[in-house]
Amino acid sequence: MKNIAIALTATLALAPASHALAQAGCSSDGATRPMVLFERFINADCADCWTDPATPAPSGGTRTVALDWIVPGAGDDDAPLSAAATRDGLIRLADLGRQPPKNSDAHILEVGVPPAGTVRVASGPPFNEYLGTSISWQPAGKGAKARGPWHYHLLLVEAIPAGTEGSTVARNIVRNMLQGTWDAAAPPSRTKRVVLTEPRPMRIPDGAKPERLFMVGWVQDAQGQTVAAARSVCR
Known about the structure:
It is a single chain. 13% of the residues lie in helices and 40% in strands. It has 4 helices and 12 strands; from the N terminus they run ααββαβαβββββββββ. The protein is globular and about 55 Å long.
């Protein structure tokens, strides 16, 4: 519990109200807003999928964020890629209405244009096995337009450069995921903009290198449309 409390304190130190501290850590402040999520799913049984030089690559430059999900395979802990496998990948596939791939699969998700608001993601310095993280959402409208519900995803991602860890292409491995829903209990103000925030400590999985970690987050509306996204930059 002490670890969690300290990690959470680090998250709060990166809140938008403290601009100077935010710039010293990792946040999406000033970063390019992603317009496309390029998601690659790999079955943990498929070692060749990880090393395949023909792995689909995203286009669109900084407007596209590639995400690599390693989903558990039939081999469980004995699968070649089991060390990076997470059940979060299965949850994500279920959200998309897709079945786990026998080998690998890809999905392209476009973010709404123009974005329906602003997503902010941030993380503090690692402490033992935890990283203080947060996601916040400011809908573009006021009053009823800001009511929601809004469903958020916050991902802890590890950047793997091409030519390392056995991969011939650069990858962004999803290491942890947080999901939740914001739904205003009372009618939002007609004159003030709504800002919704979720601070949460996230565990750094065994084997992940803290210096490679960054955050990706997005928000969906009541119809399931992805209306805005963000990626953190460490400064």
